[in-house]
Amino acid sequence: MGRYRMRIMERRRQPARGTIGSRIDVLENGATEITSDVIQGHDDDTDDLQLTFIVEDPPALGEILVKGLPATRFTQADIINGLVVYAHTSGEIGLAFQQDGFNLTLTDMSDDWTVGGNKVSGVHVRVTILPVDNQAPQVEIGIQFSVIEGEKYAISPEHVTAEDKDTPSDDILCTIIVQPTAGYLENISPAPGSEKSRSGTAISAFTIRDIREGNIYYVQSIHKGVEPVEDRFTLRCTDGINFSENHFFPIVIIPSNDEKPEIYLREIVLMEGMNVVIDTPILNGADIDVPPEELVFIISKPPKHGAILNQLSTGSILATNFTLEQIREASSIIYEHDDSETSEDSFEVTLTDGKYSVQKTAVVMIIPVDDETPRMSINDGLEVDIGETKEINNKVLKATDLDSDDSTLSFIVRFGPSQGHLQRKTPSGSLENVTLGMNFTQAEIDAGLVLYTHNGQEGIRDLVKFDVTDGINSLIDRLLLHHGGEH
């Protein structure tokens, strides 16, 4: 390292000396110590350890730190004690090194750092910032990749690309973690040292340069006896040190053979009495040989418990046929249930391309809604003699409900009886009275557990009023009790 002697225009002192043209290297986002080998000052009139350096032109891409804090001056003692560092702070620099630098002035502190102090200029430290490969490649999956069944198509930068701030893109290597299931990837370029294409050989890795040069193809090879409509593989890319995340590469396979159109149909589920829009998630079709707008659905067998309707601005009309285009966006075709007490329905759909036709049955599952009121199927009154106890069974009193289990129907006593009392047999065989507000069920009636005992006057008609309920819907009714000798 050379030394530079500068003459200071002040007669009372010997000139100060300082090193010029020094240089240091620092790693990207790192720090390097400024040692006495980098910059050193000397003055015959002052203790060298007290010599102080002033940072006149600070670095643009970093900072001078003394004891870990930004500083604009430091002493030679700080340098010797290893307290002065240059820290790079401007972030990622990319592939190439960058240059930074700073100028220092040397003073011997004799004038307490006044402007007219003893300054030495021209000391320049050049800093070379070296790139560090610490960034993982960023992979981007682009536009949808499609291939015709049985053919192959090149994977271009429009489909997949990768970039790395500190690695040339061409050098990025991508590995296929999970291979496609309906085909394979190939590299059509010759192997190094060969002139023969590697077409037809499955590969497990490729570079971004291979993609850029159009050498990587997806081959749709598995199609005999099957009709794949999609495929995919999983890849990740590396710069040799850092790895990207795993990425899915989806592949759409377009059918190419001249066969019958395909119907895609899933089960329809809806609430009783409601309707559901028939759109492509429910009903879809495909035929590569015919434009989509020419595919027509025909309701070849209508549903028994509902209707297929076309909802128009003027009202709904029965739909006997409609095109695939009609249900692709904002479909106006619906299935409407007739609100009957049914758990399922079905209808048949035929899809035609004008030449070939295929047919499928659409299954409709109806979710019951408890919207029916219980009904009295038997309410014939009860003939009872004076002082007699008689069973109220289902030949006398029976309630039914179209959408509830009949045995669970409850009879809630709202009035009476006035000439006797209702009783219920308990599991122990004893009798308990059933009074106002209490209830008994159809199951108890069916089992012969409900009784009426007459203890009133002769010849007076008795009456019990009750609500029959399924827990949601109720029916108000009454049971007439006829006594012997009634007039």
TrEMBL record:
Sequence ranges of the CSPG repeats: 15-107, 136-238, 259-352, 373-469
UniProt superkingdom: Eukaryota
Keyword Glycoprotein: yes
Keyword set, alphabetical order: Glycoprotein, Repeat, Signal
GO biological process, one term: anatomical structure morphogenesis
InterPro entries the UniProt entry points to: CSPG_rpt, FRAS1_ECM
Listed PROSITE patterns: CSPG
Designated name of the protein: Cadherin domain-containing protein
